[in-house]
Every structure is written in structure tokens, then in C-alpha cells.
Design a protein that fits this description.
Layout lengths: L23 E4 L3 E2 L12 E3 L4 E10 L3 E8 L4 E5 L4 E3 L5 H7 L1 H8 L2
Antiparallel strand pairs: 1-4, 1-7, 2-3, 4-5, 5-6
């Protein structure tokens, strides 16, 4: 049996989850089916960069990583994602909101 590549040495589950259930998040990159999403071909795009979704549940993988089940309303897909693949839209730091200017108010309205 092949060794499992854990892609980093950080044990995420030793810290609290980065996101909470119901939190609005944006996808940071294109996500394709790796074979774990039923009804779609391997390699088919499930989520596009910038798509907005909501964290529906939080699980773990390999006793190391949090996996966030994110429901993307526009596409109807629910996809398991790592924290590094997501960006919060509900809990942005003040300095980020200041840089966004008028766009920050648009995010508040979208809630």
C-alpha cells in the first residue's frame, strides 16, 4: 500500500476550526471532481474560483485536517474542502474591509 501524502506537517485539529457552521465563504480556486462526487465525471468542475457557499458541517480527515462541507447555492453542489481552499466573507479583518471600501458594504448586503 502506498504511503499517504499529507502535504504538510501541521495538525489542524489541534486548533479550533477556522470556520463555523453557517459561515459564508468564497472558494479560492477551481475545484474539480476527484472521483468522490457522485454523478459527475472525474475532472469535471464542481466549483469555480469566487463561488460563494455556506459551511454546512465540519469533519476531519486523517486525524490531521478539518474538512468543511460547503454548500454552493448557485450550483447546488455540496463539496468537502480544506480551510486553505476557502476565504471567509463574514469575518473579514477591519484592515481588509477598509481596503475593500464600497465593496465591503456589498458583502454586508449579500448576507
Amino acid at each position: 500500500m502506498a504511503d499517504i501524502n499529507r502535504d504538510d506537517d501541521v495538525i489542524e485539529i489541534s486548533l479550533p476550526p477556522r470556520f463555523v457552521m453557517g459561515e459564508r465563504v468564497a472558494c479560492r480556486s477551481v475545484v474539480r471532481n476527484d472521483g468522490t462526487y457522485n454523478g459527475k465525471d472525474i475532472g469535471e468542475v464542481l466549483v469555480h474560483r469566487g463561488d460563494i457557499g455556506y459551511v454546512r458541517s465540519i469533519g476531519t480527515f486523517l486525524q490531521q485536517f478539518y474538512i468543511y462541507a460547503v454548500e454552493f447555492v448557485d450550483s447546488g453542489h455540496q463539496v468537502g474542502m480544506r480551510a486553505k481552499e476557502l476565504c471567509t466573507l463574514d469575518n473579514l479583518p477591519e484592515e481588509v474591509l477598509a481596503q475593500l471600501g464600497d465593496k465591503a458594504q456589498t458583502l454586508q448586503v449579500m448576507r
